[in-house]
């Protein structure tokens, strides 16, 4: 029973390795050199990045919605000069761009990987290994 559980865990790590290689597109020669601890470390970093990007997306959507409501209120209840009206239109355009970019981010794994590499190089903490 213990041996079966051990094999299942090893197979799970192998499945993680395959998933990461399909997402990140690492050449097969480099893929074989990664240790199990490296694969698990990549999984943790990926999940942290995913949670962070999801939080950023939620924040951007909330900010965009707030901006939209504020601009609508200002444009309805204030008599603004043409220059200010142009600035409000500019904010509407920016809001649409933010919404489009926010909806695109989760689908671009190469952006996540690039960001993941930057994060890992900046916040490099020594990985504890028992040997």
- Helical/strand content category: mainly alpha
Question: Count the helices. How many?
Answer: 5
Alpha carbon gyration radius: 23 Å
- Relative helix content: over 70%
What's the β-strand tally? 0
H/E topology pattern: HHHHH
Distance between the termini: 26 Å
Descriptive overview:
About 80% of the residues lie in helices and about 0% in strands. The protein is rod-shaped and about 75 Å long. It has a domain at about 35-120. The protein has helices at about 1-25, 30-35, 35-75, 80-105, 110-120. With about 130 residues, the protein is mainly alpha-helical. It is built from five helices and no strands. The longest helix is centred in the middle third of the chain and has 42 residues, at about 35-75. It comes from Silurus asotus. GO terms for molecular function: DNA binding; protein dimerization activity. This is Hairy-related 2 isoform X1.
Brief digest:
This protein is mainly alpha-helical and 131 residues long. The protein has helices spanning 2-24, 28-33, 36-77, 82-104, 109-122.
């Amino acid at each position: 029973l213990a041996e079966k559980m051990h094999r299942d865990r090893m197979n799970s790590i192998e499945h993680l390795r395959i998933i990461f290689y399909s997402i990140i597109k690492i050449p097969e020669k480099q893929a074989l050199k990664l240790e199990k601890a490296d694969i698990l470390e990549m999984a943790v970093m990926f999940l942290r990045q995913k949670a962070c990007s999801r939080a950023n997306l939620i924040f951007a959507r909330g900010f965009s919605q707030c901006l939209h409501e504020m601009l609508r209120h200002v444009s309805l209840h204030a008599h603004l000069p043409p220059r200010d009206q142009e600035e409000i239109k500019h904010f509407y355009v920016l809001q649409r761009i933010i919404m489009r970019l926010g909806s695109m981010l989760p689908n671009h794994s190469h952006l996540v990987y690039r960001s993941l590499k930057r994060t890992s190089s900046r916040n490099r903490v020594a990985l504890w290994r028992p040997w």
